[in-house]
Amino acid sequence: MRIGISELFTGEDGRDGAFVRETAVLLEELGFHAIWYPEHVVFFPSYDSSYPYGTLGGNEVRALRGVYDPFVGLAAIAAVTSTIRLGTYVCVVAQRNPIMLARHVAAVDVLSGGRFDFGIGVGWSEEEYTALGVPFARRGARTDEYLAAMKVLWSDEEVTGFDGEFVEFAPLLAFPKPVQRPHPPIVVGGNSAATVRRIVEHGQGWAGYNLEVDEIGRFIDQLDTALTAAGRSIDEIELRVGRRAKGTEERDWEDDARYIEQCEPLGLHEVVVSPRFSVDGYEAKARRYAEIVGVGA
């Protein structure tokens, strides 16, 4: 089973452009399968919306002031790496214009030589939607339609147009096309029934988050049943789950190692860890973490 890593690239507190490049090279050298990039366009002093994936993640979001745009950051990472996969965990699709988003996805896939995984979600922060002038209501339906439109834009066929509720366009030329055909894997984030439906309709992968081992097993069973009913197979789907370290000590990293070991019999293809090393002593901590959890083993 592979181990990916989610990292924060904020542009502050030492996490500047050089940090992005040097960290990417180090994580590839250590043997991490993928670098997964989170997305928030803006942050807020306080939230009425509830973060749905646990206290640790919620506290981190409330403490952050910003992160680099994932497509800009991943393009920079693509330029200094050659084998590690790159992905969004996750891109909030409904907040973006689908023509521009399809173009950005294709560009990163081309610049990385076909190493991009398009992790997508609907988002949880109504404040962020409001700031961007996008309705929070029916964001799931908007996401589904945007994905359908982007598949048309990525197609080898002439783009004859699209006529939907949320997006429409006349015949046009949409380039570049992604290296991965028909498009980069769409990895659907979330743990809900809507996630299952969206994977069945659009996905080649699942990106769960903050789940106990028994919860992972139940979700995979539900997904398997839904895929079979739709004439698809669970074997078509890359299964992964995100895991946030409970702290920054070696005992917390050993806890991650136990979690990874428990996940392997479930049929997961990847666990995406979030150890959140401090900038000071980053390389030594990353090397020790990789050793403990078995990266590259």
UniProtKB/TrEMBL annotation:
Keywords: Flavoprotein, FMN, Monooxygenase, Oxidoreductase
GO biological process, one term: alkanesulfonate catabolic process
UniProt xrefs under Pfam families: Bac_luciferase
Molecular function terms from GO: alkanesulfonate monooxygenase activity
Keyword Oxidoreductase: yes
Statement: the UniProt record of this protein carries the keyword Flavoprotein: yes
Record-annotated Luciferase-like domain positions: 16-243
InterPro entries: Lucif-like_OxRdtase_Rv2161c, Luciferase-like_dom, Luciferase-like_sf, SsuD_RutA_monooxygenase
NCBIfam families: F420_Rv2161c
UniProt name for this protein: Putative F420-dependent oxidoreductase
Taxonomic source organism: Ilumatobacter fluminis
